Amino acid sequence: MSTSKDLTSPFKPLREKQALVYCKIFKAVNDKRLLSHRDKEILLGVLAFTTNEGLFKTFDKLSIFELKELAHLSEIALKNLRNWGGRPATTVTTPQRTPAGSRQGSRPQSPLGSNTEIESPSGTRRGRIAELQEMEVEPNIPVAFDNPSNNPLGLCILNVLGLKENLAWIPASSFSRSGVFGKDCVSRQQGFCAITGGPLSNNQQTAYIFPHSSLNPKTSATALTWRFLQIFLGTTNTELLASELWSEEKGVHTTKNGISIFPTLHTFFDKGKISLIPIRLTQGSHDYLDVEIGLYSDDFVVGRIRVFSNQDVEKQFIFEQGKLPRREIQTSGRDIKDGDMIRITTKDSEQYPLPSPVLLYWHRHLWSTLTSTGLSTPQSENRNDDLKDSTLENRTRTQEPEGSSFDDPAHDAGEGSSGGRHYGNDGADERGPYIVDYSNKDIQKILEQEARFFNFLRSISTPEDFEDDYSSE
């Protein structure tokens, strides 16, 4: 007999339960002085998605020094967890040592390692110097220690919250990549892509749900990451996350922490453009997990992914007693849709466990936080976006004829005038396709919306007496 249960995320942001309190704390933090815009962006993103009630209630009481400390800790940890392109974007390592324990050479080693070539997110080989330019690790903050856990960054926040650091969450040894891990995930899925339902035909990659490259026990970044998680998620949720990662001897290299999918989908999953949101778990003669596909990108390629499973999740597999689940494939395929339901099965729940719902929920929660803090893409990607914005601005900038000004009210009043617009030979407005002409009615509507927004800000900024526990009642 099979039993099914609906699933909910354990990582529920506190702002969802205490919206009014969140608005007041948001304003208090946003009004803080002596904080950079970047630090505020990170802090407000952390505030928006924290599940730690202690941090939520204490946020606006933290000193400027403590807020800066939290912002820097959050930035290092979130970049480490981002795992862009299969490796953490910010890598903070301890100096290399010889077998005898002395430091190699007489020159001090960089805390970020030697000048070796590594693979960039775009797949090209670059020197360490080029990579360092994107690391953004503050030089005046100590990041490398003989014992990575000795890094003091963020300890003051733990003290303020009355938390004691749990070093047991940090892995005692490294877990190397294993070819068995990928084979196990493919075997669990019987050779089909977990997302599209299409046959992999040896054209697959196995995506880690929680990146193994973010868990190197020899780096300060790993210790700081778990310190941040305790502050950000609270002790209970951090223990829950750790228990899923270290529940087996293989550590993160179990089918609980992976899905086998096509290479393009692997890229989208690692970049948070696609998430799998657990909805229902069924256990019995056949175990399976129903998940909802979340598309978090307007990328044209993402919307053109072809799926070969029935849109009705109940018709995606045929289950027969004593036989393996049999997938029903639709050979014509269809475009993927946000909100599609897919079913992930296993031929042996003990040998090949289903993906962990906790880790899948964490994947979505992490990328929501990264997006809110402005850390969802590396600096190189942001620079490309800035270039695109500059190009768009040049294309849409109003073009003025020589010797005239659009500030002149008489400019477009002359005979034969075209109302201040300039048209090319094809009749198209040379100012570009992005110019919008608002009517008086449109402008009035915009002004009314702004007035309502300012009234809202005024209402939440009215001084009131609050209890010490920030109770919303």
Automatic annotation (TrEMBL):
Region of interest called Disordered, as start-end residue ranges on this chain: 87-125, 373-434
HNH nuclease domain mapped to chain residues: 193-276
Top-level division of the source organism's lineage: Eukaryota
Ranges of biased composition (kind: Polar residues): 90-123
Compositionally biased residues, Basic and acidic residues: 382-400
UniProt xrefs under Pfam families: HNH_2
InterPro entries, per database record: HNH_nuc (IPR003615)
Name of this chain's protein: HNH nuclease domain-containing protein
Originating organism: Arthrobotrys musiformis
